UniProtKB/TrEMBL annotation:
Alphabetic keyword roster: Amino-acid biosynthesis, Methionine biosynthesis, NADP, Oxidoreductase, Sodium, Threonine biosynthesis
Catalytic activity: L-homoserine + NADP(+) = L-aspartate 4-semialdehyde + NADPH + H(+); L-homoserine + NAD(+) = L-aspartate 4-semialdehyde + NADH + H(+)
InterPro entries: ACT-like_dom_sf, ACT_dom, Asp/hSer_DH_NAD-bd, HDH, HDH_cat, HDH_CS, NAD(P)-bd_dom_sf
Organism: Amycolatopsis echigonensis
High-level lineage: Bacteria, Bacillati, Actinomycetota, Actinomycetes, Pseudonocardiales
Family label: Belongs to the homoserine dehydrogenase family.
Residues reported to bind NADP(+): 22-29
Task performed by this protein: Catalyzes the conversion of L-aspartate-beta-semialdehyde (L-Asa) to L-homoserine (L-Hse), the third step in the biosynthesis of threonine and methionine from aspartate.
Protein name: Homoserine dehydrogenase
UniProt keyword annotation of Secreted present: no
Gene Ontology biological-process entries: methionine biosynthetic process; threonine biosynthetic process
Domain (ACT) ranges: 365-438
Cofactor: a metal cation
Annotated positions binding L-homoserine: 201
Amino acid sequence: MSPVSPKSLSPADRAPIRVAMLGCGTVGSEVARLLTEQAGELAARAGAPVELVGIAVRRPDKHPELPAELLTDDAAALVARDDVDVVVELVGGIDPVRSWLLTALNAGKSVVTANKALLAEYSAELFEASDASGADLYFEAAVAGAIPLLRPLRESLAGDRITRVMGIVNGTTNYILSAMDATGAGYAETLDEASRLGYAEADPTADVDGYDAASKAAILASLAFHSRVTAKDVHREGIADVTASDLAAARTLGRTVKLLAICERVTADDGTESVSARVHPVMIPRSHQLAGVGGAFNAVYVEADAAGELMFYGQGAGGAPTASAVLGDLVAVARNQVLGGRGPRESAHAALPVRPMGQTPTRYHVSLDVADRAGVLAQVAQAFAAHGVSIAAVRQRDANDTASLVVVTHLAPDAALQSTVDEIAKLDVVHDVVSVMRVEGEDA
Ligand code: NDP
Ligand code: HSE
């Protein structure tokens, strides 16, 4: 680490903060551009020049736009160099990135990363290394791209008690669901269109199967509830099974479908607390603030005891928006190095257990095609009652000898709702289970 400059020096005269950047793709190329174009302003804000001293990529020959003398394909060697103060990691994935960042932190080099997959599994290990050496670990870009969300959770709301974080944290799936809602098209053809337009990646699995959102939910729950929550603790369902019928069923009831990350602090009757973290499609009322979030945008709703309800909205992905968050972290690290301070450490003191999804209270919307004859409604209602699930509303529409039946429940343990649906599907009078979707954003 470079020696701390005397505080009386002007920023330009101070020893530079020397940055190694790992990865120079969609996000990294924008970070490199902004570091160059805004060098003077960044130095003034950081308190010292921020100088890019090396860039590691997989294929240096594919980057004629970058200064050749900065490029290397040996990220491990770049991280180990004596003239590196800060490592900015924009490669993604777990291995070998994990070992590079541990090496950096163990050597007292601060780390800025956008890597949600790594943080959702290994943040405890990374924080331990950062604590041992006193280096900073910042990761604002890992959740919701440009939106300042993690710093409010880690710092601005550190004096409050957060009870819920709920939001749209994946732009690709939000784009697909918004398009399905607008056009009435099915999932597969909308995914094809999203790929053609460049919204979905060549391999969209991490997005559409909910892995990306689950990693983000783990990070959000950990920060909000001062506990360790990993991606494995997050109940995850993607959008591949969302059909045009689900969207149509939602529309007739004044609702729409969104893939939400929902992190809650749950207090049991005996006062014990736990955390629930889940990612799955939900129906929400069209009047809900999250329903109006279209395309690839992200929005996150935070509820805290004293602050009340807060909403964070903006671009959750893309090179320049994500680079904005990375540079904000880089300025924070540089300021800490100039002034001799440290950023926030891991805050996991609450150590709340994670409540299994089956015990988490949810509400279901169930749309059925049933035989239109006496006693059918009673049979369906009996199945709900047998599992202790209370019905909030029933709506029936007749068509020839079949009736379309929509049941919306009150809150019940998710496992009881699942079992109810399994039993209903087996009833002779039920011709088809058209749509089953959890409901959020309205009174239970
Ligand atoms: P890209 O795939 O566009 O870029 C990855 C970069 O990493 C490339 O420059 C690649 O080199 C380099 N790289 C890959 N393997 C190695 C290696 N073994 N050694 C050195 N360099 C390597 O990724 P993104 O920019 O999209 O994403 C980067 C990170 O930011 C990820 O963690 C991602 O989850 C996160 N993020 C991305 C967002 C986005 O909108 N794209 C939004 C928020 C977070 P080469 O160029 O030679 O192939
Ligand atoms: N693939 C992610 C998304 C990128 O679609 O939101 C941002 O993390």
